Amino acid sequence: MPRSTGEAARRAGPTRVLVVDDEPQMARALVINLKARQYAVDVAADGAQALRLAAERHPDVVLLDLGLPDMDGVEVLRGLRGWTRVPVIVLSARHSSDEKVSALDAGADDYVTKPFGMDELMARVRAAVRRAEPLGAEDAPEEGVVEAGDFTVDLRAKKVSRDGRDVRLTPTEWHLLEILIGSPGRLVSQKQLLQEVWGPTYTRETNYLRVYMAQLRRKLEPDPSHPRHFITEPGMGYRFEY
Q1: Does one domain contain both 125 and 161?
Q2: Has the keyword DNA-binding been applied to this entry (predicted)?
Q3: 118 vs 133: CA distance, rounded Å
Q4: Is the pLDDT of residue 48 over 70?
């Protein structure tokens, strides 16, 4: 989705973080640590306020607790994903793999279980911001536009279209796509993808790849259950084929 002129101008200032947590002590700790690192911070104590502030303030990153008083955090995620690709980092005491997959499947970019170290969380915030940054002209691959079957990827504009219609990808989905189409026909290992997209501490989180590759296939493959373009090499990694 194109950003407004005002939004583009705001991006020249500090990175803005929306903290969504109904625990006052946790919210206060996050605000103190974020402001100490020169982030601008807004705080929401429930899902409705989070959606309103996201629309009004256009944050660069959202830190989202799942246990909110008025709605589940996954509902907030789905509400956000209806109109924005802003990176969302889930903060939750829910540790089960199913809970993580559910949040990732709804569009989360990362999942941090409570309790967590503040330095680690800040590193994840920085990584999320980097993933969401558009390519500069000097960084854009020479190819520019990649056409594969029914979909087209414009690497410079950071846009994807399918059958003439724009396809909305989250920053994480885009980063995965960018890496894969940058090495057509070649196997990209699970470890490499996890390290490049999420960072060196994620090299065992293969469930992240499974969820996000499924989402890319649903959005771009003509038959996601029999992919033509995003090929799994079991136990090894993935390949992109034209």
Answers
A1: no
A2: yes
A3: 23
A4: yes
